[in-house]
Write a structure and sequence with these properties.
homodimer; alpha/beta; 434 Repressor (Amino-terminal Domain); Rossmann fold; six-stranded mixed sheet; 13 helices; 12 strands; about 45% helix
């Protein structure tokens, strides 16, 4: 290896046959590393003349006292609430929050390309968005800690709900009430079509229907961009079906609010003519009397902050993983009207009176 | 003066008989300072052996490339949206955003006391909150630029709506529709009772009624903490009056959403039995069919960011000041029902049927 080529931690990890995280822990004298592994990493470091870089040394001391927080949206309630919880914990620990809004693919690229060169944070917290493979390598090469909240990021400490379980709570509630013709309003992230939050919520719907012995009808699933107005449009689409559903499961409360607006404008009663269930327990859900699956959003930000503090102190992250959701039954769901079942498709259709 | 006492800009300003801001501008060769004033400041600096401090020198160069953004709330839509607009401009200019949530008086004290010692930002942007006198001195002693958005902070470049004008648009709309018995739901900041946003909105109500020749009835004004549930409670209180109003003006949309929930639960029709108007044009306002006074929230954050960039570049802040609001008429307001005027107080009361 030429003398002026800087050896980085990725080289050491590769040589030792361990992950970046393990190499990082071994080199920073982290207690939870097997002795054999630590010896292997140290040997690799010696062979490569690896010098602990300023960035890597921050692992122990937190030299910058700054944490980068990366969010795909600032003004949406879910992300702002995660951020509020996280910021409170970091501020208490006297760490500064550097906020980075990465709204689209170009922003993401820019953020991940420039951050290492700047060497200005001890850790990165990723809120409600995925971290791609190349981006992970970049972060790891900096030797900074990485924590995710509001979504699971493979290979990193995270705190998140189980989207599939949350979706099941919503759809099972509709099935329990007797609905047999259930629509779904799914949402897409225009910039992040691969983000697994929505696939989990969609899978829950398919599995719940299959277990109930109900057929999958593609027409009952409408996929729209996230937001209230798209939710309203999606409900219009469902109402225009030859045989509309008797209940609708929306992937988020804000989408459900839009769906409810369409129902009110169509002169339909909620839940007599149509039940609606969401996910989140947005502050407006109580006011809108929306049945929903509540997730503790601020708490996820707090838990991520605490995990990060433990990591920065050289310990193991605790209190992360999957947090529980719970069904909150309000006035927007009820049993289907008699005569509204699909067995009587000649009966008056809810959307057409 | 003892040799080891560091002379600061406040000493220079005092000696020269000018404000901190003027002293700062004079010392940084800002073009908009009268020659006589500049000469006086330079003479004072020389007499005091004032050395331009690292902080003061940042005025020109922006040495840290970081901007502190101070917000009283993160998760509320208004503040998160301001922040989103501001962050976009600062990020484009390659400035980092350090986010500080100052939720209560202790947080505020902590922030303003510690920031100067840390010397880590080129500027401070204050979003939607006041800056007290002692705090201003502290910021000025750092030699950092200060900009306010979402509210007017005396003595600093700001961008904000005119709260009194916005309130007039709301109340005048109700008067134009023929309402003569108008309630108001005002809100308080528990931690910032002196923040002038709400006084402006309250003054608008009193002035509009006075100009219309209507008496001020204290019972028609309910003051609650900010939020949807308090808004719902406030409407319950108005409905319990011997003679309820026929229309209600809420200081913000989120409060109005709560008020509308109470009306729906009471079986009252909006607007036939009660008109409701808010301020903001929250994203949910369209879905809730709420008449409101729209303010451009994200744009205020963007404008504040641009003002700050101009200041950091040594120029004059442009594009700030008061931004226009506009009435957005939706389905929540209409003329009062015949027979609901106060002249016929023996008629059936909306809240009691």
């Amino acid at each position: 290896m030429p003398p002026h080529t800087r050896v980085n931690m990725a080289d050491v990890a590769r040589r030792a046959g361990v992950s970046m995280a393990t190499a990082s822990r071994a080199l920073s004298n982290h207690p939870h590393v097997a002795e054999e592994t630590r010896a292997r990493v140290l040997a690799a470091a010696e062979q490569l003349s690896y010098v602990v870089s300023p960035e890597a040394s921050r692992l122990a001391g937190g030299a910058t006292d700054r944490v980068a927080v990366v969010v795909p949206h600032i003004s949406r309630w879910f992300f702002a609430t995660l951020l509020e919880g996280l910021e409170a914990v970091l501020r208490d620990a006297d760490l500064d929050v550097l906020l980075y809004h990465v709204g689209d693919a170009a922003d993401r690229r820019d953020f991940f390309q420039r951050l290492p060169a700047r060497r200005k944070v001890d850790a990165v917290v990723v809120l409600g968005m995925p971290v791609m493979h190349g981006e992970r390598e970049r972060l790891e090469s900096m030797g900074v800690h990485i924590v995710a909240a509001g979504g699971q990021v493979e290979h990193y400490p995270y705190v998140s709900i189980d989207d599939a379980a949350a979706g099941r709570q919503a759809v099972d509630h509709l099935l329990f009430l007797g609905h047999r013709r259930i629509g779904m309003i799914a949402t897409v992230e225009p910039t992040e079509p691969g983000w697994p939050a929505n696939p989990g919520r969609a899978r829950a719907y398919r599995e719940a229907l299959a277990e109930a012995g109900l057929p999958a009808e593609p027409g009952l699933v409408v996929t729209v961009p996230w937001g209230g107005v798209p939710g309203a449009d999606a409900m219009s689409q469902l109402l225009s079906l030859r045989e509309p559903p008797t209940a609708v499961y929306a992937h988020s409360d804000e989408v459900a609010f839009g769906a409810m607006r369409t129902l009110r404008r169509a002169g339909l009663r909620i839940p007599e003519d149509m039940s609606v269930v969401g996910i989140d327990d947005h502050p407006m859900a109580e006011l809108a009397d929306l049945t929903t699956v509540a997730q503790p959003v601020r708490d996820q930000g707090v838990a991520a902050g605490r995990m990060l503090l433990a990591l920065l102190a050289g310990g193991e992250p605790e209190g992360g993983g999957t947090v529980a959701t719970r069904l909150v039954v309000r006035g927007s769901t009820g049993p289907p009207r008699p005569g509204s079942s699909r067995a009587r498709s000649s009966s008056p259709r809810p959307g057409r009176r």
